[in-house]
Amino acid sequence: MRAHYRAEGLAESDLPVSPYDQFALWFKEAAVAGLHEPNAMVVSTADAAGRPSSRTVLLKAFDTRGFVFFTNYTSRKGRELAENPYVSLLFPWHPLARQVIVTGTAERIGRDETAAYFRTRPHGSQLGAWASDQSSTVASRAELERAYEQLADRYPEGEQVPAPPHWGGYRVTPEALEFWQGRHNRLHDRLRYVREEGRGGRPAGGWRVERLAP
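The structure corresponding to this sequence follows.
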């Protein structure tokens, strides 16, 4: 099962200075192309022993500070991030023969920021955040739905639902961002921004670009 990738590629001269600007460009192009949920990303974490796990999560915000997603802090990824903050994000934009891979560290965002986002969620999603003890075992679907209905009775439509204390956002601060463009003959373009460390009195925070062999 093979696909023939595009002829046009990605050159160093095409890249802006900031990887966030490059991400914004590709993200917009993915949205304009009509990709289903272009903000869907595979979040990979590992526990203290290095055993990895992955799942698909929706990106909810990004800027020069990093990439933000929300989850239950007691979920498997939440527990693993508490033990090991290193994380990888993968945006698999297959119809465009593109991938973006972000590696860095995750930390919780502030409760005010979490509460502000929680208020924008649909009412049902707000109740679901309370009803689901994410990643824990549950006896049946009926038990899960019963918990949801009890919350629906407590917080009917139109009534404000508070953000659960065990639920909130993480911001991933990148150390590297790789932009992968599929090319003919499997000679793909892989350009990676790597955060520069401060040296010789220079401040940290700049980026260098390196090309990786496909």
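The two ends are 19 Å apart (CA to CA).
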